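Notebook p. 47: complex prediction with S-adenosylmethionine.
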Amino acid sequence: MDHQPVEPSLSTRLSPGLYIVATPIGNLGDITLRAIETLKRCDVIACEDTRVTGKLLKHHGISKPMRRYDDHASDAAREKLLAEMQSGAVALVSDAGTPLISDPGYRLVRDAREAGTEVTSLPGACAAVTGLTLSGLPNDRFLFAGFLPVKEKARADALAELAAIDATLVFYETGPRLVKSLRAMAEALPDRDVAVARELTKLHEECRTGSPDDLAEHYEAKPAKGEIVLLVGPPLEVAASSENAEQLLVEALETLKPSQAAAQVAKATGMDRKKLYVRAMELKAK
Ligand code: SAM
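Predicted complex, structure tokens below:
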């Protein structure tokens, strides 16, 4: 891997453009050197809440003009920021974590790119990724689904839509809604491994795993406080059948061509024939 130096020098001006800057999700130490440099050297900081960002800046001894920005901001407010990026460096931060991830910024980035403005993204803390890595759930495939709908029917529909996806599902959640979501998961996704990752990077960080029902009972008795990432492991049958499918493929390949082996195993397991064909070709090449 090639590594770049943090930035040339403090005195160098940042080139004009939009800088998407990730900030901590709890622990103030979770900010990169490059993020701090960028906040020090930019011309303007676009943020969701000037009080929240003001505290972060104060902690690092930074004083910069701030512009309140969210995706509901008027077109005029966005136009103004886009104009500022033509001659200056505009840093975009959210209250916590990575901007745009369940946070404002999408429209600003889209418009900046359309205008041919230089856009740079500085990686850093993100609750979804932190929760995923902590949960111990499979992470080779995951789907970030943001917040579940608040209304019961919409929430059940959303879970039904996601139920068949062969990936760990990652949701953002709030304490008051956690038990309702877990109960809805017990209906739509029974027998799945679930993790509740709470207060990540903070003093009372907790990651509790179990079935949706067990976790619902636990948090009914002991309501969850603070911020939450709720994760659901992939469908068990798919995990089991994919192991099974691998074995079946190996056996089928002893006598059949990859396309025939894939078709046979797809029929036996209900798995996707094209994916099985790709795997069959890989196995044959070994
Ligand atoms: N952009 C942020 C990120 O990169 O993670 C997320 C912003 S979203 C508006 C806020 C939600 O993220 C919270 O309701 C919670 O679900 C999750 N979250 C943020 N910080 C968290 C933390 N320290 N522990 C657990 N979840 C957190």
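Notes: The chain has three domains: 17-122, 127-232, 242-285. The first strand starts at residue 17 and ends at 21.
Next step: compare against the earlier run before touching the bench.
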